[in-house]
Amino acid sequence: MGDFFEKYSEIRGDDYVKKLQLEGEIAAQIKTKRQELKMSQQKLANAAGIPKSTVGRIEAGLTSPQLETLLKISKALETPFVIDGTLDNGSNNLYIQT
């Protein structure tokens, strides 16, 4: 998969590819936490006050969630949303690596 990102970086630029990778990591963390809690997408959507289609699109990587949406999801998952530029150290927080 590394070759793909390298070639795509040549076309779209490193910053764009890093953004896509970051969004994918966030989506994966949301889905993993939701599944750990044995929540359906509908249950998460109801708890967060957002449409189920939004949860599905975020988890599928089809949309980039707004900060407000991420905060609602974080609260619904009872998981802190932390932006501090470090990798998750196993604390189960949602981290954004810059």
From TrEMBL:
Keyword Phosphoprotein recorded: no
Q: Which GO terms describe its molecular function?
A: DNA binding; DNA-binding transcription factor activity
- Report the domain of life of the source organism: Bacteria
PROSITE patterns for the chain: HTH_CROC1
Any one Pfam family here would be HTH_3
Q: Which SMART domains does its entry note?
A: HTH_XRE (SM00530)
Query: Which InterPro entries does the entry link to?
Result: Cro/C1-type_HTH, Lambda_DNA-bd_dom_sf, TransReg_Diox_bact_type
Q: In what residue span(s) does the HTH cro/C1-type domain sit? A: 30-84
| Keyword terms | DNA-binding
Instruction: Please give the GO cellular component terms listed in this UniProt entry.
Output: cytosol
Its name, as the record gives it, is HTH cro/C1-type domain-containing protein
Tell me what organism the protein belongs to.
Answer: Paraliobacillus quinghaiensis
